[in-house]
Design a protein that fits this description.
alpha+beta; 4 strands; four-stranded mixed beta sheet; Alpha-lytic protease prodomain-like; 2 domains; Alpha-Beta Plaits
């Protein structure tokens, strides 16, 4: 029995969000190196960047655990599954980011009032931030590719990956969106910290250190708001994107025995969808034949790997067109 549980646990771990796992490991290493560089240089911007990397590492740990738990199969007590668990863990991550952002903004305001003199650690700071840019840049690229994979977008190359990732980010899983948003800030924050360290090392403009620290703090607040808003909608229950709805409509109407769609509701949980609908069938069918048609349509819909649950009801065509002719023509 224990071996079976162990195998189930490993299976769930493999289904966990890979972007968050990679980001957790990468940001843990970066946070430790930045902390050493901050102690040696006294740079406020380095402190802010270290805080952000630490927040990222903690967040991604929470999010990875949440993504693993959200893959658990439905149970009798939770018949719709655990898809929304990931939203809860992402909200915990938002709290962590907010606390780190507060500390960063407070440090930025302090440095603007009392600019610090940097006595050493210049080259160490530069090396750490360059490594930070490379690692976070690689994590950001992986997150973009993960967005395209989860959104079922055909493979892109070069700048096409970036453009498509921004267009389809709302269709990605909550943990992938979190990694994407946080690493945009991580790369931007590392650039700001790099500029601040170079400028303050060769000029007397020490105020820039505090300004850069403050900007990084505000960027973290922006991430917390964006991710918090997305996951709050996910916890309440949000409708599926328009293209997912259109795809389900096309699948239903492609059946020759379906004449109209009376009602259709598609609910998103995590990155999966639940479909409920009332469809109209042509007149004169026996109950047994009508049931066969219903199950046939359900099987076609659930063949989409992003759709986990389909519940359809059927009625005989009532002669009233519920799906507008204009929309119908656009679907066929």
């Amino acid at each position: 029995m224990s071996e079976v549980k162990h195998n189930r646990f490993l299976t769930l771990m493999k289904k966990g969000n890979k972007s968050s796992a990679v980001a957790m490991i990468g940001n843990s290493v970066i946070a430790a190196s930045k902390a050493i560089a901050y102690i040696m240089s006294g740079s406020g911007a380095m402190f802010a960047s270290a805080m952000h990397s630490l927040a990222d590492a903690v967040n991604q740990g929470f999010v990875f655990i949440g993504s693993v738990l959200s893959e658990k199969k439905p149970t009798r007590q939770f018949p719709t599954g655990f898809g929304r668990v990931i939203n809860i863990f992402c909200m915990i991550a938002v709290i962590v980011v907010t606390i780190m952002a507060y500390e960063t903004i407070k440090e930025g305001l302090h440095l603007m009032q009392h600019p610090a003199d940097h006595t050493g650690g210049f080259w160490l700071s530069i090396i750490v931030l360059i490594i930070n840019l490379v690692v976070d840049g690689a994590i950001l690229l992986k997150a973009m590719k993960e967005i395209l994979r989860e959104a079922r977008v055909e493979k892109k190359t070069g700048a096409g990956i970036v453009v498509s990732a921004f267009k389809n980010v709302r269709r990605a899983a909550p943990p992938t969106r979190l990694v994407f948003y946080e690493d945009i800030v991580a790369v931007t924050g590392a650039l700001l910290a790099l500029i601040a360290i170079i400028v303050t090392a060769f000029t007397q403009f020490n105020l820039l250190d505090g300004v850069a620290t403050l900007l990084i703090g505000f960027l973290m607040i922006g991430v917390a708001f964006r991710v918090g808003f997305d996951n709050m909608m996910g916890l309440i229950g949000v409708a599926a994107p328009k293209d997912i709805e259109e795809k389900v409509l096309k699948t239903i109407l492609s059946d020759e025995d379906v004449t109209d769609i009376k009602k259709l509701r598609i609910l998103q949980e995590g990155r999966y969808y639940h479909v409920e609908g009332l469809i109209e069938l042509r007149k004169g069918l026996s109950l047994a034949v009508a049931d066969d048609i219903k199950f046939r349509v359900q099987d076609r819909i659930i063949s989409d790997q992003d759709i986990t649950d389909v519940t359809l009801s059927i009625i005989e065509d009532d002669g009233i067109v519920d799906l507008s002719p204009e929309r119908l023509n656009g679907l066929i």
